[in-house]
Every structure is written in C-alpha cells, then in structure tokens.
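Exercise 7b. Backbone tokens:
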C-alpha cells in the first residue's frame, strides 16, 4: 500500500510541475488577429505613425512588415528598421507573394496573450510565431518565410 501512495505521489507531483511549467511558457506567447481596418489604413495611408516599423526578407520584396508600439522593446535580429512612413507603404505594396496559391495580403493586430495591442502585421503569409513578454515588455516575431516555398 505504501508503494502505491509513493508512486501516485511522485506521478501527481510530476504532473503538477509539468502543468505549471507549460503554463509559464504559454504566458509569453502572443497572437495575430485579423483586422480588416488595417487594410483600409494601408490603402488610405493612415497607418499609426507612432509605431516603429520593420520588414524582414529582401529589401525590394519583403516577407512581412510589422509596426510595433514604442512602449514595447522589439527584438529586431531578424528584421530591418524602416525609416519613413513612405517607405512603410512601399514595403507593404511590394510584399513577397511566394506562398503557393495565396493571393490574400493579411493585415493583423499583434496581441499579447491578455489581448493588449502590441502592433500590426502585414504579409501574404498567414502567420508567424509571436512571443510577447508582458513582464519585460519584449516582443519577438520570426520571419514567416518557409524555405519549402523555394521547392
């Protein structure tokens, strides 16, 4: 009987540790949410001028353009800063459309897990991993380009 309690106790403790450690990881993931009004903002040149904008991929054919609220720290190791709003609109106009059978330019809000608005995302790629650490104010987005697209 004592062995049975010990075995279940260890199993229960392991399960609790796993749940809490996974819960901690999930707190840092953000998400992208469709926002049709962003396309209107792009078409009418009315995007948020207070955001800092970046692109990833090739300069003349970027994979994505993001605008990040200046209240957040953006990890830009995969991205290049865009210096002017005119250049932001040019980059969005010239987004790469290498995604097979995809003709939709996605315009999405970048949200923290709690729904707090962090920025905006434009790409022909549906999604990309988003990491938002609300404690440190750090945001990481990865290039949505997939090398399989070249095959």
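Sequence design result:
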């Amino acid at each position: 009987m004592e062995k049975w309690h010990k075995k279940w106790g260890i199993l229960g403790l392991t399960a609790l540790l796993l749940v809490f450690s996974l819960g901690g990881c999930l707190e840092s993931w953000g998400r992208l949410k469709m926002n049709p009004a962003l396309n209107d903002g792009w078409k009418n040149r009315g995007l948020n001028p207070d955001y800092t904008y970046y692109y990833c991929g090739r300069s003349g054919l970027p994979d994505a353009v993001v605008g990040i609220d200046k209240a957040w720290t953006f990890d830009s190791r995969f991205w290049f800063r865009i210096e002017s709003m005119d250049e932001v609109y040019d980059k969005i106009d010239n987004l790469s459309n290498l995604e097979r059978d995809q003709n939709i330019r996605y315009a999405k809000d970048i949200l923290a897990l709690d729904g707090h608005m962090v920025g905006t995302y434009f790409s022909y790629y549906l999604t990309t991993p988003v990491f938002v650490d609300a404690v440190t104010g750090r945001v990481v987005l990865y290039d949505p380009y997939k090398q399989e697209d070249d095959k």
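Instructor comment: Residues 44 and 54 are 20 Å apart (CA to CA). The two ends are 60 Å apart (CA to CA).
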